[in-house]
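Reopening this ticket.

The earlier resolution said the output was attached, but the attachment link was broken on my side. Pasting everything inline this time so it's all in one place.
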Amino acid sequence: MKRTLVLSLLVGASCMPGYADNSAPSLLAGNHSVEEVLQNKKITGVVKDNFGPVIGANVSVKGTTIGAITDMDGKFSFEAPADGVLVVSFVGYTTQEIPLQGKTDFNITLKEDNELLDEVVVTALGIKREKKALGYAMQEVKTDNLTENRSTSVSNMLQGKVAGVQISQSSGGVGGPTRIVMRGLNSLSGNNQPLWVVDGLPILDNTNASANSQFFYSSGAADLNPDDIESISVLKGANAAALYGSRAQNGAIVITTKKGKEGKLQLEYNGYVAMTQAYDSYEFQNVYGQGSQGVFSMEALGSWGPKMEGQIIPNWRRELYGDESYSDYAMLPQTNQVDDFFRTGLAYTNSLNASGGTENISARLSFTDTRNKGIVPNESMVKQNYNLNVELKNKYVVLGAKIAYFREKVKNRPQTYNGLWQHFVQMPRSIRLQDLQNPIGLDGYAVNWSGPSNIRFNPYALVLNENGNSLDRDRFQGQITLTLQII
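Inline output:
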């Protein structure tokens, strides 16, 4: 009996491939004349894949009921006509047709069929199982859909593709996290996020550094390159994620990355461009301006003043900060604050990968550059992914090595409170944005329509380099796996 032992420096697992009950190779069924039997020849062979013999493969003669099932060593043997065509099939592999042409011994290698991946799914610890044989809730996401609807985060790409899973993005801005709730809220104060597992290695997916953090920070899942993903399995049930322990109590998202395949060198390029605009969902009143009890007042913080009918009012920059370059202006409603302050965001991604290999060695190298200019002035994100996946193998040993390097630079990521839009909502309707621009006053400090304040701020001052936030992050990940085929 064949056993497979998997050893890993970072993650280890052992699995026993399931196989059908095998009996002595024979004719499947049917009645054949003596002349037909005398014309038949005994054929033998072995069916294998990239990892060794395939147990339970179906080998038959096309158009007949003659055939057999491979045994525990992947071998088969039966009588067949010399001019027949051999048909070899197994779940998850491409069906092959091989003319006999008088040959009696065959060495057949099956190749994976990407179109049938939905029949075989990757479960906990990378174990492959037939989907219909699973006893728990799981769903596999086709990666083709991810490249059609691109985003800067894999989490965002899963929106609308996994049944029963709630996925919501942060309040806006580049570099923000995505919240995923798979099995409901299990903790009022703790983390309800599922566990992400990439090639058997769990990764951190906390959206914030702490509960009192002022800024939203992207999770470890945002470091993944969608073009490097081979398959995604979402394990919803408790039994599905039990092998990962208590960290997977909220479910698990298991990702398998692409590897190099046997064949000549292949180069692939993917490009993606997207534009975004701010959405204004508020309906503001545009009748009354700054003031109190129907009377204009520069000290007032709300729009309880007189009707805005074009009457001339003093400019707050001249009255509060002594800047004579700002003159009095007509009191009118400011109806285009969103268009005037926010800009059109632009995001583009360029990805290049090379893969290839021989029967004993394969490799895949990929590079992805993502740049995102957000809708907020002075808001941007630049991140780059480098991935190298190498695999060496022979009849008895499979040695795999993976190296991934990720770097990210974000300016003015979203805030958890005191956001920009809050100050537009609280601002009197008669305050002009052109007076808020160039927020540094004559004394070198930021100016504001309300004067010095701890609750009202100039939006243009908040996005200055001196008042904004920035983060430079570098992340390195390495993994080595060793698989031994013991007979």
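Reporter confirms the inline version is readable. DSSP finds eight helices and 27 strands in the chain. The domain at 116-257 is CATH 2.170.130.10 (Ferric Hydroxamate Uptake Protein; Chain A, domain 1).
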